[in-house]
Design brief:
Elements: H1 3-16, E1 19-24, H2 29-32, E2 37-39, H3 41-50, E3 55-59, H4 62-71, E4 76-79, H5 94-103, E5 108-112, H6 117-120, E6 125-127, H7 132-138, E7 143-147, H8 150-159, E8 164-167, H9 180-189, E9 194-197, H10 203-206, E10 211-212, H11 215-224, E11 229-233, H12 237-245, E12 250-253, H13 268-277, H14 286-302
Parallel strand pairs: 1-2, 1-3, 3-4, 5-6, 5-7, 7-8, 9-10, 9-11, 11-12
Bound molecules: 1,3-dihydroxyacetonephosphate (13P) and iron/sulfur cluster.
Residues 61, 86-88, 114, 172-175, 235, 260, 262-263 line the site of iron/sulfur cluster (SF4).
Length: 303
């Protein structure tokens, strides 16, 4: 079968079986093309709450599908490839953070949305990369334990000077790999290009940015900017998708290493099989859903 034929089959089966397909912006082009909604992980989980369908299929990684299930527990939620995890989300578990909380009992625990549902059950508030600064600013407590991404945490600490922000060693192994040298070399090759960087990158890289933002913020910035050339410091799909959206502009990934293998695990055949067989359903117990929801609700309240 050709890519086009599989896509056609997916589009007809999803109607027949009442599926809504969500695709994170780091998914490959052919997956984005068959999705009902695309965006960052939080935007997708919000879209899922509004969809009328009984079944939701997440093309992304496990924590994203879990977030959808937490916010839409009455729906059947599926992950297109059962092995698609996020190394950052899996870096810290409940046991580790429970013991850190004992050492820092008067700290508010702020969890990046890229965490497991299980870990969210013991955190106070979630943030996304686009809402982290705003939410940390609004928290009354001066003492913040920010997990798991020390790079996003360091970026927040730079912006919110009056808080005492404690960080642990964790983060996205894909974004963290971009070096200051990668940026300087790319800038030499494309001197007129604007540098757009995700805050999951290391602080010395973030410092060189013309604009720092989440995946969606980077895309919006590039689409609306009058500039013509951009160096993209986030997963390389974003440069590719932007190139389709704005063919008159030029987009270059900051490094060849900016490729998330977990995000690229999902194939069209995975999507087709998942819909046909209703496989890889996300199952969370009621207690996990209700406790994890508290910190997501807090994010919505403060964000
Ligand atoms: P956002 O899409 O929220 O910016 O997150 C980036 C990321 O690494 C998702 O896995
Ligand atoms: Fe996880 Fe990083 Fe991949 Fe996003 S890009 S899914 S944070 S490993």
């Amino acid at each position: 079968m050709t890519i086009n034929e599989i896509q056609k089959q997916i589009l007809s089966l999803k109607k027949e079986y009442d599926f809504c397909i969500l695709a994170h912006s780091y998914q490959a082009r052919e997956i984005i093309e068959i999705a009902d909604f695309t965006g960052d992980s939080f935007a997708l989980s919000q879209m899922a709450t509004k969809a009328d369908n009984k079944n939701i299929l997440m093309c992304g990684v496990r924590f994203m599908a879990e977030t959808v299930k937490i916010l839409s527990p009455e729906k059947n939620v599926y992950l297109s490839n059962e092995n698609a995890g996020c190394p950052m989300a899996e870096q810290m578990d409940k046991e580790l953070i429970s013991s850190v909380k004992k050492q820092f009992p008067d700290y508010t625990v702020v969890a990046y949305i890229n965490t497991t549902a299980d870990l969210k059950t013991i955190c106070d508030v979630c943030v996304t990369s686009s809402s982290a600064v705003k939410i940390v600013n609004k928290i009354e407590n001066k003492n913040i334990l920010f997990i798991p991404d020390c790079n996003l945490g360091a970026y927040v600490a730079e912006q919110v000077k009056d808080k005492n922000i404690k960080l642990l060693q964790g983060g996205c192994p894909i974004h963290a790999v971009v070096s200051k040298n990668d940026v300087l070399k790319s800038k030499e090759r494309h001197p007129g290009a604007k540098i757009l960087i995700h805050p999951e990158c290391v602080p010395e890289v973030v410092k060189l940015a013309d604009f720092v933002g989440s995946t969606s913020e980077i895309m919006n910035y590039a689409i609306n900017s009058p500039e013509k050339e951009f160096l993209i410091g986030t997963e390389m799909s974003i440069a590719e998708h932007l190139q389709y959206t704005c063919p008159d502009k030029m987009f270059y990934p900051l490094s060849k290493k900016l490729l998330c293998p977990n995000m690229k695990m999902t194939t069209l055949v995975d999507v087709l099989n998942c819909i046909k067989n209703k496989s890889n359903e996300i199952i969370l117990d009621d207690e996990t859903i209700s406790k994890a929801r508290l910190c997501i609700d807090k994010m919505i309240e403060l964000g």
